[in-house]
Amino acid sequence: MAIGRSIVQKPELFLFDEPLSNLDAALRVEMRQEIQQLHSTLKNTMIYVTHDQVEAMTLADRIVVLYKGKIEQVGTPLELYNAPANLFVAEFIGTPKINILPAVWRKGTLHITDDIIFPLSRKPAGVREGDKMFVAIRPEHMQYQQPGDFSLTGRTRLCELQGDSTLVWLDIDGHSVCLKSFQQLSFPSRQSLTLTVQEAHLHLFDALGKRVVLSPTSL
């Protein structure tokens, strides 16, 4: 009703402040689609405030990510997903949350543990020997029984079957890591499991959480 009253006044700009937060899941999806259609029909500017990243990703042309009153990043949904400016944005975008592992840059390689070492093809720009870093990998970019550039081995903690996919939670050197597989998988607790990842799917951050890009030239 509130949206309808606003439409008849023909405003140049709409401000939505978490309009779907009190709706059940099914109705929230339906109303999200209605708002998309309204925007397409009316062609008005809409500023939409939400804590729901699904709403942000599906409705927005551009997203402004705020943290404690400070703008962390502005961009299209895919820009924020593919190239988060810092660890806060990386963790905010994506469900389940992105996996984050501490690492150290040594002798041209990323050392995550004594047994997990990523020999990158290109050096992270501005990184020096011994610098602490963070390696972030989205759960949907982890792979099981598929070839990859690097591998990680851990022990399973929990499997969550979701029908069309499975979330497999593992412990890797004391760090919780999630695999999102579009297979129906099941593993007993504490089973050793090796996952792979492509270098292109790594997100690197410095010790302060700022995004680090790879240099254009090979090591």
From TrEMBL:
One of its GO terms (cellular component) is maltose transport complex. Pfam families: TOBE_2. Residues 135-205 form the Transport-associated OB type domain. One of its GO terms (molecular function) is ATP binding. It is an enzyme of class 3 (hydrolase). Keywords: ATP-binding, Hydrolase, Nucleotide-binding, Sugar transport, Transport. Its EC number is 3.6.3.20. It comes from the Bacteria. This is sn-glycerol-3-phosphate import ATP-binding protein UgpC. The gene is ugpC_1.
